[in-house]
Design a protein that fits this description.
It is built from no helices and 14 strands. The mean pLDDT is 89.
Length: 174
Amino acid sequence: CQIHSDTIHIQVVDPMQVEVIPSATTICEFDSLFLTGSGCVDYEWSTGDLTETIRLQPLESNDYTVKGIDINGCKSNDTIHIEVKPTPYIEINPNPTTINVGETVYLHVSSQLPGTEYLWGNGSIATSIMVTPPFSTIIDVSGVYDGCKSNGSAYIYVVDPIEPDFTFYIPNTF
């Protein structure tokens, strides 16, 4: 009997691991971010997207998962937690308001988030300011809470008081 031999070469490959690469892991409410999958050729996100990169504008903190398939057909997944911080809602009172020329109005700013820091357009950091604008104007204020910023504006309409217009006719003969 003849002996025949044969050789089979088996190469074991380590599967690629999918990885989520975020543009940020903490954002402010109403901001957006990008998540990019890396290490695979096909991607499926927990949002249903099938692209390598997705854009999100989450309104609350959440986990996002990507499932990946590498060039050898091996599957893996990765999850990332995105933290969403609240953004202050700026309210100015009174707004809008109408005043007469030369009058003063007190503006007060508040937010739904206690501890919000304010900055008025005139540089004041107080919660209330007094203004006497010579003409109709817009007063701006920004509020920052835990690094998240929003802006507000107060509309002040300045009017001239209406003076009565009396015309007297005095006859020169009776």
